[in-house]
Amino acid sequence: MAGNPRNGRPYRALCARQRSLGLPCWWCGHDIRYDVTGPEAGRHRDAFTLDHLVPLSKGGDLLDPANARSAHRRCNSARGNRTTVKQPRASRAW
């Protein structure tokens, strides 16, 4: 029986590579709290998570760097497995 591929060395290396770029969240555009690590990162809404442009459930490649995106934990969770990027709503009608 194969283990969880997200616990493997290639996935951890991809996460480390993406984290080292220090990019803002690709979903909302705000800064990510890269300083939050370890067990606390699993609970912190602004912590880094590796998101996939093409969700794994839609055939995206887990280990493809071209499919990897930096995201907040909250944004990654809110996006789910949607493939479209929702546009921010205007603050008021013009």
Features:
94 residues, alpha+beta, 2 helices, 2 strands, globular
What is the strand and helix layout of this fold?
Elements (H helix, E strand, L loop, with lengths): L8 H12 L27 E5 L15 E5 H7 L15
Description:
This protein has one domain: DNA Binding (I), subunit A. The protein is of the alpha+beta class. It has helices spanning 9-20, 73-79, and strands spanning 48-52, 68-72. Helices cover 20% and strands 11% of the residues.
Portion of residues in beta strands equals 5-15%
List the total number of helices. 2
Rg is 14 Å
Unreliable stretches covering 5 or more consecutive residues: none
Name the overall outline. Answer: globular
The number of E-state strands comes to 2
Q: In percent, how helical is the residue content?
A: 10-25%
Report how far the terminal alpha carbons are from each other.
58 Å
Do you know the CATH architecture? Orthogonal Bundle
The CATH topology is DNA Binding (I), subunit A
Task: Provide a compact summary of the structure.
The protein has 94 residues and is α+β, with helices and mostly antiparallel strands. Helix content is 20%, strand content 11%.
